[in-house]
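Table S2 (text version). Query chain:
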Amino acid sequence: MSGSAQREVARTIEALPIPETLLVPLLDVAAAVLAKLPPTDLPSVLRPLAGFDRRRLTTSGPARQQLRRALDVDESFREQVVEKFCEQSEVEAALEGWRVESAVERVADAAARADLPLLASVLYAARPKGWTFGLGMVCAAAERDRTEHEQADDAKAWETRLESINEARRRAEQARDDALTEVARAEAELRDERATRRERDARAASDVEDADRRRRDADAVAEQATARADAAESRFGREADRARGAEHELRMLRRETSEREQSLPEPPPALTRPEVEALAAASEEAQRLAAALEGLTRRARDAVAVTDAMQGAEPVQGADAMQGPRRTRPLCPPGMQADTPEALDAMLRTRGVVLVVDGYNASMAGWSDVVPAEQRERLVAALERLHLRVRCDVVVVFDGADVVGVQPPRRAGVRIVFSEDGEEADPVVVREVESRPKRVPVVVVSSDHWVRDHAEANGALVVPSAVLLDVLRR
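Corresponding structure-token output:
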């Protein structure tokens, strides 16, 4: 290609604001070609990327920018990349199906299949007839899709806000009605209290009159009691004289009894020592037999109690016996199954719910036709839009084998976690559930049986990846 033709192509490309996300398939091939080039054959524009492995070339934003610039300014590198890229069967099929006359239908079909990056990369690389027109259509379709998604998300956000406002208004009206009811109740209680106070005052006056009457009666009774006390004191004096006489007679009887005891014969002789020892031995043997009988009785009662317990008790399952308090469950609307898109969308709006996603399990189910890096990008972007829509916290876990040393990107409302090198993402998903307090409801998205069993054992609600993908496509 001549220098003027290259400049014309460069001006055409600069006039088209092609996002790098639309050139991911071509840039991945460029990264593969660059990784195989010896250092001496590197284009000057790509020398800053020397030493980058393929993973860094496909995930680093600056690296992608350098690769795209090299495709624009280095014809030799571009020819190698285009030749390698056009060897792919899907690229050949896209080129065979490209016609300028049917460009609008072709772009619409690619947008419906979410296949705009492949079509944009084919047009950008092969540059068939009408490629600039096609690229413009692709960019417009991508921008339209992005704008429609943003508008849909904004509309749902406004709907949610309007629902919140209506709910707040309803609660305010309910609070006003409750306040009016409380005021009416308080006024009725005040009227009742005033009537009760008047009744209490009347009863108090009557009680005072009754107290005066009882005081007068008590005075009369006290006078009578004084007279009876005087009479009792006189009787007490007479009884005291009688008691002294009885005491004198008692002393005389004791003296007479003592004299009679002295005149009685001597008591029989005491037991001999052998008789005492025999009685002691018999007493000890009786005590031993009583203790043995008591022990036998106790063991018999214990045996009966154990038998009754074994016959009447129900076995306790091991997992249920070892678990402590159960985890709070997300709110599933009545009449819905938890593993349906409608129920999942509603449960994710539960206050405080956390969504934990088995990353590649979900991305492979949704975008198996693209490379893992693009799968991650699409899944994370969809989860970010989901967070903006339902406002739930999202954690997505990926295998870290192909991203060692890469810091997870930051996304609004979405925390991205890579497993350690040599460790799968499954146990990391389960640990994310275990790290949450029991009061936090957790929804786990995975079609893996091991993840499902261990997450449910920790109180999480598990739904298949296909259900989340249906929610993300709304």
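Notes on Table S2: Confidence is low (pLDDT under 50) at residues 300-322. The first helix runs from residue 3 to 15.
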